[in-house]
Amino acid sequence: MKEIKSTPSFVANLGKDIPSGLVVFLVALPLCLGIALASGAPLFSGLITGIVGGLLVAWLSGSQLSVSGPAAGLTVIVLNGIETLGTFEAFLLAVVLAGFLQLVLGFVKAGVIGLYFPSSVIRGMLAAIGLILILKQIPHFMGGDEDFFGEMEFFQADGRNTFSEIGHAFASIQHGALIVGIISLIILIVWDNEKLKRLKFFKLVPGALVVVLLSIAINALFERFIPQLAIADTHLVSIPNISSAQELGNELRFPDFSFFTNPQLYLVAFTIAIVASLETLLSVEAVDKLDPHKRRSDMNRELKAQGVGNIVSGMIGGLPMTAVIVRGSANVASGAQTRLSSFVHGVFLFLSVLFLAGFLNRVPLSALAAVLLVVGFKLTKPSLYKSQIKLGHEQFIPFIVTIVAILFTDLLIGICIGLAVGIFYILKANYNSPYFFHKEESTNRELIRIKLSEHVSFLNKASIIMTLDKLPKNSHVIIDGGNSEYIDYDVLEAIQEFKKTAHERNILVELVNIKEVSVLEMH
């Protein structure tokens, strides 16, 4: 599937992409470190993955707005993989092999799998991520949580869970962190005000940057004048302080190629490739839903990009990577327009390693938690739930089941449960061939008639989207639903999105007996 390239040039969007990249960097930095810590890997490995995801994968990616890096969903796989193979260097070889497997998946066009996930499940995933961000950041917001910053699973390594952790945080609040968190949240809410956004200053300067700088200043004042409110080091960003090229070289790890004969290596590599690919496809599909320009990403290109990224990351000591929905949604929420913002985030990660460690190690986690609380709310707004209810129980039940399942398990298990429920509703309706395709020659434009069949389900969505994407430029397309008793909402949404963007290829679209549906905006 070809990406629709309707966005203005990189240069025209510098004013939005650079500030967005900075915001994503501020969110990604503690996530990279926290995920490495939870994975039982060297802290520097998480930063390497984020840097490779920004500097390299951003340009190879099939998506304009997704951001790649180490994923919380892979922590258990990484932890078990290192334990199984015995050394981190052996695990790096598994990451390299997983990258080659992803390249193969891209070349055999396995990316089409992403199109078979219903919109209700993808929206449920976004809403669930929003809720999890809110619930997981509340303890960091109050300075009462010493678990790693990027944790997403319901059951935690310390024996507590998402909800009991909040109760524990209330019993051990750090008042300085809470004050910084509250001030940061107020600033971010005010910064998002539509009236203020009309002013050039508020457009150009991201609220997250103001929050970070102010939070450092407030904590410095606490340390000097009110020591009892000073924020503990455990609630500040912590990155390795590298002062020379030699120290940087010492932090790099390399694969142990002697493990090629170990059969366990291939099992670990296969597991990483499959889980990372699935999480990437889901994340990119979700970010496409958030994209205000409604661009569709080339999923096969994305798999190839992730493959190259994992090969490079594994070769220089990084963790396996995926496209990460938390970073992608923060990117969209910050106003990003092109893949330049992801590249900028990678540049800042690289510079932070070389020059900014001392400064960034003073940033309170409660300020970054406030940023993620705002991102989380945007993903799980009450209006989203109201919109899904209006679409009927066939859309709402898979949506809500996906949310609950992800909330109480993890991303991939929850998605599978939501998908199973969605398929149950689809299989209740019988369906035949989704459409009849007929070309007619015309003096002005090539006339193409697409007559939909009696029952069109979401299982037909992929073939219909691919057919619409391949329609020739300057044609006249008539999509006729006169014979259809049932057309799934996902298909109607895909047709409406095609109609919105068809003018970019000078295609005239005429819908006959096709119900108009509102395409839900997720930004």
Descriptive terms for the model:
SLC26A/SulP_fam; four-stranded mixed β-sheet; single chain; transmembrane helix; SLC26A/SulP_dom; 523 residues; transmembrane; 60% helix; STAS_dom; Transcription Regulator spoIIAA; alpha/beta
How would you summarize what this structure contains?
It is a multi-pass membrane protein. With 523 residues, the protein is an alpha/beta fold. The chain is built from 22 helices and eight strands.
Ordered list of secondary-structure elements with their pairings:
Layout: H1 14-38, H2 43-60, E1 68-70, H3 75-85, H4 88-107, H5 119-142, H6 162-171, H7 175-191, H8 194-197, H9 200-204, H10 207-225, H11 245-251, H12 263-290, H13 299-315, E2 321-323, H14 325-333, H15 340-354, H16 357-360, H17 365-379, H18 382-390, H19 393-408, H20 411-427, E3 435-440, E4 447-452, E5 455-456, H21 461-469, E6 476-480, E7 486-487, H22 489-501, E8 508-512
Describe this structure in words.
The protein is of the alpha/beta class and 523 residues long. It folds into three domains: 13-369, no CATH class; 383-427; 435-512, Transcription Regulator spoIIAA. Helix content is 60%, strand content 6%. It is built from 22 helices and eight strands. It has helices spanning 14-38, 43-60, 75-85, 88-107, 119-142, 162-171, 175-191, 194-197, 200-204, 207-225, 245-251, 263-290, 299-315, 325-333, 340-354, 357-360, 365-379, 382-390, 393-408, 411-427, 461-469, 489-501; strands at 68-70, 321-323, 435-440, 447-452, 455-456, 476-480, 486-487, 508-512. A four-stranded mixed β-sheet has the order 3-4-6-8, with no helix packed on it. A two-stranded antiparallel sheet has the order 1-2. Helix 4 packs across helix 12 and helix 7 runs antiparallel to helix 10. Mean pLDDT is 87; it is low at 1-8. It is found in: Membrane. It is a multi-pass membrane protein. InterPro entries: SLC26A/SulP_dom (IPR011547), SLC26A/SulP_fam (IPR001902), STAS_dom (IPR002645), STAS_dom_sf (IPR036513). Keywords: Membrane, Transmembrane, Transmembrane helix. Residues 437-523 form the STAS domain.
